[in-house]
Amino acid sequence: MEEAFARIKGQMDELGLNLAVWDKHGQRVDDFELVSEFCRTVHGLDPHHCEVTHQLVQRILSENEPGKNCTDCCCCVIGVPLHQRRRLRGAVTVCYPPRELLKDQCLPQLAERLRLDQASLNESAERSCRHSSQKAHEIMRMLSWLLKTEHDLHIANDELATLSTNLAGTYEELSLLYRISGSMKVTQAPKDFLKNVCSDLCEVMSVESAAGVVYARATGEDDLVALSGSVDFNIDQVRLLAATQLAPLLAAGNRSTVVNKFTAAPQSGLADKIRNLVVAPLASDERIIGMLVGINKQDKSDLAVRSDFDSTDLKLINSIANQAAVFLENNRLYADLQELLLGMLHALTASIDAKDPYTRGHSERVAALSMILAQACGLPAPKVQRIYLSGLLHDIGKMGVPENVLCKTGRLTSEEYELVKHHPAIGANILQGIRQLDDILVGILTHHERLDGKGYPQGLSGKQVPLEGRIIGLADAFDAMTSQRTYRSAMELPAAIQEVRRCSNTQFDPILVEKLLVMDLAKVLKDLRKKPQNILEPGSLQEHVK
Question: What 3 state SS string does 440-490 have?
Answer without folding.
Answer: HHHHHHHCCCCCCCCCCCCCCCHHHCCHHHHHHHHHHHHHHHCCCECCECC
